[in-house]
Structures are given as C-alpha cells and as structure tokens.
Design goal:
There is one protein chain. The chain has 708 residues and is α/β, with parallel strands linked by helices. It folds into 5 domains: 107 residues, no CATH class; 166 residues, P-loop containing nucleotide triphosphate hydrolases (Rossmann fold), CATH 3.40.50.300; 63 residues, no CATH class; 173 residues, no CATH class; 118 residues, Beta-Lactamase. It is built from 29 helices and 13 strands. Strands 1-3-4-5-2-6 form a 6-stranded parallel beta sheet, with helices on both faces. A 5-stranded antiparallel beta sheet has the order 9-13-12-11-10, with helices on both faces. Strand 7 and strand 8 form a beta hairpin. Helix 2 crosses helix 4, helix 17 packs across helix 20 and helix 23 runs antiparallel to helix 24. The N and C termini lie far apart (84 Å).
Length: 708
C-alpha cells in the first residue's frame, strides 16, 4: 500500500505524542519523502544547504527515538510504513475517540495533513494554513521594526497592504513569518503562500478562496474576475492575514519599477483592490523589488505601508560564538556584508571550516564574494535593465559616493537626468545601492561583486577583439582624485592586466593583441568613448615587473636616471618611496618593518597615507630647492585614525612622466615613525577628501550655471 506524504506526517504526529514538527522540519520531511536532495530543499526554503543538512540530521535522530528504529534520509519511507502497520491494532480505538453527535467517526489518520490541521483549527475556532513558512525559532534583532510594523497591522491604522522589501538574504521571509506569529491572535484566519514558482494569479486566488470560504476548488469559478470578487468579499467578511512570499517571481526581469510579467498583470489588480476596497484583513508581500504602482514610498495612506529591510547591525553579533562576537575583526566582517544574515551565516561557516575561526585571516584573503553569496547577487543583477547595469558598473569604478549629476557625466552615450534618477531610484528599492547625503554608492560586498564582473567582462571583450565594452567604461579615471586612481589601478586595471598576461603568455603577445584592438578602433566611424584610454592603460600596466612595483611613479620609465632611482629604492633596507609634489608616496618597502613590535601590531596591514599637515609640503618644497638633500621631521596621517611624527631623508630628483615630460619629484627614506595624538580639530584624510569633493562639485555647479 502506498503512503502519501500527508498520511506519513499524520502518522508521525501521532508518534510524537504531543510534540510537533517545526515548519522547517515538516518541509524537510515532505521534500525528503518526495526524493529531493538537501540542495534542492535548501533552494526551495531559502536556506543554506549545510543548515538544511543539520536540520535533517536532528530530525532523523528525533524520529529514531520516537519510532523505535533508526531513521535516515534513505530509509524514511520504509520505517514510517512499518511503524504504521504495527500501530494499526490500536489506531481504531484512537479513531473512535472523537465521535460527533451524528455518531460519525473521525479517522485519526486522515487522507491529508490539511484535514488534520483543519480539525484542530475548528476546535479552536481558527483556521491557520502556514504553508511553507520557515522556522523562526532562531531570530536575531529587528525589535524596533517588528514593533512598528505590528502597530501598523493591528494598531489603529489596520493596514490592508504591507510590503516588506530588501535584497536577497536580508531576512524578508523570516521577518514576515515572525510578524505573522506575533499578530496571529488578532486574525482568526491565516494563509501563507509562496510565489517562488510563479503560479498564475487564478491559481493563487482559487487556493485562497477555497481556504477562506471552506469551499471545494472544483465548485469555484475559474475566471479571474469572479475569483477576485469572491476573494475581496471573503476578506471583507472575515479578518484574514495573508502572506504572499517571493513576489519578485511574478515581476518582469530587465525592467525598472517592478512591472508584472506578461500574463501576471492580474496580481496588480489584486493588490490594488486589497488596498483600495474597505476590508478588515491584511495582505503582506515580500519581494526583492517593489511592484509597480502598488506601494508608494512615503505614502500618507495609512492603509498601504512598506518597509525596506536593511542589515542586522549590532544584533548580527549574536550570530557568532561569544569569543568572536567581541572581536574587532567581526565588526569589520559585519560592516562589509552590511549585516546581511544569509551572507554572514555562510561566511561564518567558511571561517570555522577553512580558517579555524580566524576572522582576520579570512578578511586578508580579499575574496569575500563566493559560492551562494555570488549566486544571490547573480540573480539580482540578471534582473536589472541595461541602464541600471550601467549605473552599477560605474559605481564600482567610482569607488566612493557620487552624485547623480557626476554619475550621468560618466555614462556614454550620455543619458537624461530623468533616466539617471529613475535608475538610481529603482536600484535603491532593490537594495543594491546606498544613499550617502546627496550621493550614492554600493555596499562593499556589492562593489566587490561588480568589480569582479567588470574585470570578467572587460577580459572577455579584450580576448574576443570586441572593444564595445571597453568603449563604455573607464578602467582608470584620469580626472579622479589620486587616491581613487590608485584604488582603480589596484582593484581593476592590474587584475585585468594579470589575467590578460596569463592568457597570452608574454608581454609581447599581449601588446600585439592590444595593438590589434587599436586597429579595430581606427576603422570605426563612431565615437571611441573610453576604449583608447583603456588600451593605453593596459599597455602601461603590462610593462616590466620593476615598473609595476611602483604603481604610477613614474608611469613610463624612459631615462636611465629613472631606473637608477627605482633601483636605489629596491636595494635599500630602509622604507622609502618616490613622490611627485602633488601625490602620495608609493612605498618601496613597508615603513612599519623598522618599528617596534607594538606599533607593527597596531598598523601592520595598513598602507601609509602620507597625508601632510597643511603648509608642511610647501615648506619642504622650498627647502629642497635650497638644499637638494636634507633630513626632516614632519607630521602626517598614517590612516584615518593614526597620526604620526615621521623622520625622513629627502632628496630632490626628476623623473619623466607618460608623455616623456620632466617632472620634479622627491626621493624619500624613512628613519622613524612615532604615533602621536593629532592636534585638536585637525581634519582627517576622509575630511580632506570630502572637502575636496565639495570644492569640485561647487566648481562644476558654477561652470554649469555659467554655460546655461
């Protein structure tokens, strides 16, 4: 005799003798019964596969104790059927337990698990169908958000339509489940439905109306208009809480503002009527994207509300072992992933299994986007329209917050102000970018993902001899601040150059292929965009190791004297570097190797910013003109928090730049670095950069006004 999964769950409910499976345990059991792997179960439930495996292990152990025989994923069906047959002699007496006044009997093993649930609900006067809502027995933070949203739903507002939005893994489903559990006493009827597999709106309405009205599906109409009418009538007559999870599944990919897929437009009308027609129920939506014309941000309509979920913040520390929760490295980890619960869960497991719990060692790898985290971002990126993808690439190139006006100037061909505003607004609702004052940027993990994607696409374009992508994006921006250019060289240009060198084998072959790209561009009659500059930068970056070790100084070694300067730095056992008058020093040796073990521990992994205090650089320039070699103590920021007195030897030299022009510079060797307290009110490096950006923006604004 074949046993259905619902019958199996009913049998197990009896065996548990008062205990109950959690919602997630039931999902694992159901899908295991159907032969699905842990990976597929994890995908359908929105959990990491290793966590689902842990849930399964504990579930089989519990069932082994209750059923009196060892249960595994492979023998589950055999053991449950054997237990059922052993229990048949006593099942009939249990079945007669609940005899109704009509003398009819209720079977203790009903045909479906839903029948058993409905029996229990009827005895309490409530009917709750939690569907595949996840287990929230472990839930971190969100106290304030839950309190606010609970008030919207059961307080004076009696919200009818509530949207919960956020990027993948941020915890929308868990939040909606927790909220529903907190307000369930206020709703006699609760229904949970997932739209993950994009069911037709008629299918969802049939299931909802059937449950809300206690009618058989076969007795209901099948057309959308009549079903919608029955549904609206049901939520007017009864107080119902309805959760629709994964609404992004029915939204159109490659479109801004969440338009519905073709054939799914009925969802828009469903949500509109829920919001506008007077009723006593609440429909909760969870989605990575905001449906078009459904939930207005900052709306004054108290019946329609929306919540944008962000990371867990300080409460994310609860996800780590006590010794890790208090470690400063854990703060960096949480900040990098912006408190995304799913990302932190996956990362913490990798740290335990691969780095023996050493968070700093993991951070040192500088490879933070991997596995399921990358897959999650792939899913969201693939749904973006081309214009939003452009914005995402440019934010990764810019590396810091940028205004929409400056962002618009980057994009070629230029787009309108309205288009850039639409793209930025849509990306914010997708939780892929962040607002910083009047500027926008990406979360660190998103920026790393987009940088990798930029390098991959540029690499493919180069080896395929197709300059289109290289025409659209600048790998290094020459108009950017120097510290931004250095970051672009380190994280974009150099990794791309290394990949191309590995592909072609020799510098000569790479140069020939880049020259071929130049020839392709020369034959074009259209604007070349950024392609020519990108190819020139790739040529420069692929030159000898000696030149690469010194970043951009000098960008092109053309004079024997330049080479001698570089060799002096390399051969010296002291920390040192070469700098032009308006740039920082690219260090030949780590300046911290000369210091005490205590100071090395404090700032071992940090680059020396070489941020001079105001006026001191100009003073040094004057002194070097009078005396080409001198020893001088000066004060500078090492990084954002540490200020130092530095004792150095200086020598005035000349180098040639990429245009073979002579450039005044200085050769520096460090004797001693001593950490001291900075003067009061002295701007930090970030303060100075912010001031420079403001001056630049003011200048651009004045130029724009002058040009009309």
């Amino acid at each position: 005799m074949t046993t259905s999964v619902d019958e199996a769950i009913a049998i197990i409910d009896i065996a548990l003798d008062g205990d109950r499976l959690s919602d997630l345990q039931e999902q694992v059991l159901r899908q295991t019964w159907q032969g699905r792997t842990y990976n597929k179960i994890a995908d359908s439930c929105g959990y990491d596969s290793s966590y689902i495996r842990d849930v399964g292990y504990r579930l089989w152990k519990m069932l082994s104790d209750k059923l009196g025989e060892r249960v595994t994923k492979k023998n589950l069906q055999v053991v449950v059927r054997a237990y059922s047959q052993k229990s048949q002699s006593t099942a009939s007496s249990h079945a007669n337990f609940a005899t109704k006044s009509s003398n009819s009997t209720i079977s203790i093993v009903p045909n479906t698990a839903v029948e058993l649930d409905e029996l229990k609900d009827d005895l309490n006067g409530n009917r709750h169908d939690w569907g595949n809502a996840i287990d929230t027995s472990i839930f971190y933070g969100r106290t304030e958000e839950l309190a606010n949203v609970t008030d919207w739903v059961i307080g004076g507002d009696r919200c009818r339509l509530l949207g919960i939005f956020g990027m993948g893994g941020i915890g929308k489903t868990a939040f909606a489940t927790k909220l529903a559990q907190q307000v369930q006493d206020d709703f006699p009827i609760i229904v949970w439905k997932s739209l993950r597999n994009a069911p037709a709106v008629e299918t969802i309405l049939l299931e909802l109306v059937s449950f809300l009205t206690n009618q058989e599906v076969a007795s209901l109409p099948s057309d959308f208009t009549r079903l919608l009418g029955l549904f609206i009538n049901a939520i007017k007559n009864s107080r119902c809480l309805i959760v629709l999870d994964n609404v992004e599944s029915v939204l159109r990919s490659g479109e801004s503002f969440g338009y519905f897929c073709e054939g799914y437009e009925g969802y828009s009308e469903l949500f509109r009527q829920v919001a506008e027609v007077k009723n006593q129920s609440c429909v909760i939506l969870t989605s990575r994207e905001k449906p078009h014309n459904v939930l207005a941000p900052n709306s004054s309509d108290r019946f329609v509300r929306s919540l944008q979920l962000t990371g867990l913040g300080e409460s994310a520390k609860q996800m780590f072992q006590p010794e890790l929760a208090i470690a400063p490295e854990t703060d960096k980890l949480i900040e990098f992933y912006r408190g995304n619960p799913l990302a932190l869960t996956m990362v913490s497991r990798s740290i335990r299994s691969m780095f023996d719990g050493d968070v700093q060692e993991f951070l040192n790898q500088e490879a933070n986007v991997f596995g399921d985290i990358r897959d999650l971002l792939d899913q969201q990126y693939s749904r973006l329209p081309e214009q939003e993808q452009q914005v995402m690439y440019w934010l990764a190139i810019e590396r810091e917050p940028i205004t929409t006006d400056n962002l618009r100037q980057d994009i070629v061909p230029m787009i309108s102000k309205a288009q850039i505003l639409e793209s930025v607004t849509s990306l914010r609702w997708r939780s892929l970018i962040e607002k910083n004052a009047n500027s926008f940027t990406q979360q660190p993990v998103v920026m790393e993902y987009m940088t990798t994607r930029l390098i991959d696409t540029a690499y493919n374009a180069a080896i395929e001899g197709n300059p289109e992508f290289l025409m659209s994006y600048a790998l290094v921006q020459h108009r950017a601040e120097d510290y931004i250019r250095e970051t672009q060289i380190r994280y974009i240009l150099q990794p791309l150059t290394n990949r191309l060198l590995a592909h072609y084998g020799t510098v000569e072959t790479l140069h020939q292929e880049l020259q071929n790209l130049f020839n392709i561009l020369r034959d074009r009659q259209t604007a070349l965009g950024y392609a020519q500059g990108n190819i020139m930068n790739l040529l420069r970056a692929s030159k000898t190791d000696l030149a690469k070790r010194f970043c951009r100084f000098p960008e092109q070694v053309t004079e024997h004297s330049d080479l001698q300067i570089l060799e002096r730095l390399l051969e010296s056992d002291r920390a040192g570097g070469l700098a032009t008058w308006d740039h920082r020093i690219p260090w030949a040796n780590n300046p911290l190797t000369q210091q005490t073990s205590e100071s090395k521990t404090q700032i071992r992994s940090k680059n020396l910013y070489y941020q001079w205090t105001e006026g001191s650089l100009e003073q040094l320039q004057k002194e070097l003109k009078q005396q080409p070699k001198l020893r001088k103590k000066y004060h500078a920021w090492l990084n954002e928090t540490e200020f130092a007195m530095i004792d150095g030897d200086f020598e005035a030299v000349q180098i040639t730049d990429s245009l073979n022009q002579s450039v005044e510079a200085r050769l520096v060797f460090i004797n001693e670095i001593k950490i001291i307290e900075p003067p009061a009110n002295l701007p930090t490096p970030s303060d100075r950069r912010a001031q420079a950006r403001e001056r630049k923006q003011d200048s651009q604004s004045k130029n724009s006004k002058r040009l009309g």
